[in-house]
Amino acid sequence: MDKRVANADVAIEKLFDGATILVGGFGACGNPENLIAAVLRKGTKNLTTVSNNAGMVEFGLGLLLKSRQIGKMICSYPGENKFAAQQVLDGEIKIELNPQGTLVERMRAGGAGIPAFYTPTGVGTVIAEGKEVREFNGKKYLLEPCLRGDFAFIKAWKGDRWGNLVFRKTARNFNPVMATAADYVIAEVEELVELGSLDPDGIHTPGIFVNAIFQGTNYEKPIEKRIVRKRA
Amino acid sequence: MAEAKMAQAGNIKEKIARRIAQEMRDGYYANLGVGTPTLIANYIPAGMDVVLEAENGMLGIGPSPFEGEEDPDLINAGKETVTELPGSCYFSSADSFGMIRGGHVDLTVLGAMEVDEKGNLANWTVPGKKLMGMGGAMDLVAGAKRVIIAMEHTSKDGRPKIRKVCTLPLTGLEVVDMIVTELAVIDVTPEGLVLREVAPGVTPEEVQKVTEAKLRVAEDLKTISY
Fold first, then answer.
1. Which of A67, A158, B49, B206 has the highest local Cβ count within 10 Å?
2. Of residues B77, B51, B150, the one with CA closest to residue A225
3. Is the ipTM beyond the 0.95 threshold?
4. Tens of pLDDT along A56-101?
5. C-alpha distance from residue A15 to each of A12, A202, B130, B223 (Å)
6. Could you say which of A100, A125, A222 has the minimum Cβ distance to residue B97?
7. Is residue B85 less than 8 Å (CB to CB) from chain A?
8. pLDDT tens digit string along B146-165?
9. Window 42-61 of B, Cβ < 8 Å to A
10. Element at A143 (helix H, strand E)
11. Total-model pTM
């Protein structure tokens, strides 16, 4: 078994107009930079992207917003990309806001064969509109449907040709969950390593979830808010 | 003039942070929101182990990195560069919100636009204003064992933020336990809002004047100590 592909362009050959893509990352941290660049080159249109944020104006999903390839965003905090906010206000793109924990749990459920679940998050808010509310042990919960993608774009630190993945620090975030919840899961890694060299006890995403893997290049990894301490 | 105003605002935020830091207990797992709540980390008493959670997937947030040691793979939920401490750990967003929703987080401190006398909270959007999103706020207030609001007592144009009924879209229903402002410490109780502490030199009447909801003054009303 060998899930390696040459590069991001080959990896997204099957991507089609109107596809739903789960895109890993939290802000600019842990973004599948090579895959996003490949989508920009391919020019695929009318995409639905599922991601916590909306990228930055010149980075991440922000690039696909700028090129007007995204028709709908499902996210929890698009706020820091002014361009995204403007496109939503202008009615150019649709947006579906989910509480962050609901967003990730919908994908966890989607990857784990659970069609829907009850959550206390959002009871009594706009999020509850049109949703079933049910009481368990005297407390109210909302019924939320699971969420899956046609594709998932995952960014990991290391991976092997079977698709086993290891993430680094907070670049893990949504990535391992999204890797479970799409029909075709592509992982880009900073370092593709020999099969058997990853510690089996330390693998975060088992290869069963991954369909294609390649080693990315030229990672930009911008820092959105550089806060530093002065040396004494 | 502008500088003096900014210095005063900084002072207000630090005072609020100092007071809330007194609510920390040894062994707490706490999630601090963006802005003033983040400052609380600076005032946790020495020798007390409080483990700070970042909802993007980390327990044990350390101080800001030294210049040149920033790591783009290591940020807090406000997307600021941070460091790890001995005992830190990383996990996925699903595990993170499992912790939060599952009631494993002892305390969360968040900012607010409005809180009302039932402890309803509005802190994520103002209709017609810039689109932001709720991020993890709805999950945090639904799941944390205790919710403290850190905010200035009135809005920038002087209107009360502690209302009879919230007018802005809600983040959570009956979720707030305590409100700490530059003027007062207020508990949310089943009988309504109780004024527990006032800032030095401030009277309960003065606090009530800038509060829309009715405050009951605690019998053992105290002065906030910083």
1. A158
2. B77
3. yes
4. 999 999 999 999 999 999 999 998 888 888 888 888 999 999 999 9
5. 5, 31, 33, 63
6. A100
7. no
8. 999 999 999 999 999 999 99
9. 54-58
10. strand A139-145
11. 0.96
